[in-house]
Amino acid sequence: MPVSNKAQRIEVLDALRGFALLGLFLCHMTGYFGLYWQNPEPSWVHRFVITVFNSKSYALFALLFGVSFNLLMQGKADKGIDYRNVYRWRLVILYVLGYFHGCLYYGDVLSPLALCGFILLATYHLSTKALASISLALLLLIPVWIQMGIYAFFSIDITKPYYLQCQIPAAQVYMSGGLLEVLSKNALWGQVGKWAYLIELGRIWKILGLFFLGVILGRIKFFEMATQHLRLMWILALCWGLAIPLTNTVQSLILQNATHPTVINFINHTFSAYQATNVLFLQVALFVIIYQQPWIKKLLDLLAPCGRMSLSFYVLQSIIGVSIYYYFGFNLYPSITPEGALALALALWVAQVMLAQAWLREHDHGPLERGWRTLSSLCVRQGRYAT
Length: 387
Description:
The protein is an all-alpha fold. It contains 18 helices and no strands.
């Protein structure tokens, strides 16, 4: 039986979300949940994961967050429902969940997504053209260039970023402390280090830019259109594929005239972010293209159940990961090899797929997704009663 365009579009989004979740898990597991950088020893495993997933998976989550936001708000609006107040509570609850998740693993992305969601909610009324302009400026990291100009004007040294001053001492606790010590350290300095990292490297602006782009893609029904216009998707894939060597060329030309270490460091970080965005867009285009092939679609649909339960599995992955690598758990960080970490990650991913399939046979949503929705509605009702 042929699948309707709307249903197929949703399937594509779930599969993409599952792909992003898989990428995050591989990055975290092969990075020993933040401990890799204490004694980095590059291997083919790390080169592969960094090339394919690092800085792309969280970005894909941000893009899909914007798409899902638009689908939800538009769907409610079509029914005559003003969903803004409920969504505010959803963001508040997501932030609180993210904070507590960040107490366990400092690399949490839920709280940044939640705070950026408030900006998205406040600007949702803007025209598509206005959102496109804002998104372009943010994805080009214009705020980061301005930030760099301020640093240069005041002669601020950025070769020793503040986030490292927070994360290095915290990592010592992960490698030698108990669970309560980890929670205590991350409750403040883990959060400070995370936000310093997001701001100093410009990731927060990229998240916002991808949020806005996701809303735009939702408005123009990009994923629905993509399944019907594969030639356009091939053109987009070709364009983003060509953008990769072009970005490398521009970076090389700029570095020829750069001599100051601070400037060189800034250029490398910024163009690395540009390159990650190019690869992200190429991945999305290729994913949509190959998703149309029936036999490949069956394989990619294995990602969809985890994609539907991405919040639940994202938190579960952190619980599993820190328990495997940190001192208070199995303390495998000192002994595991990169190949062993990759094999363990893939085995655990297969287990997650099986668990997701079993859960969704009995339930419509994951446990955290269900709790998130229910608690948001309860907060709204209690607010109405209070007034």
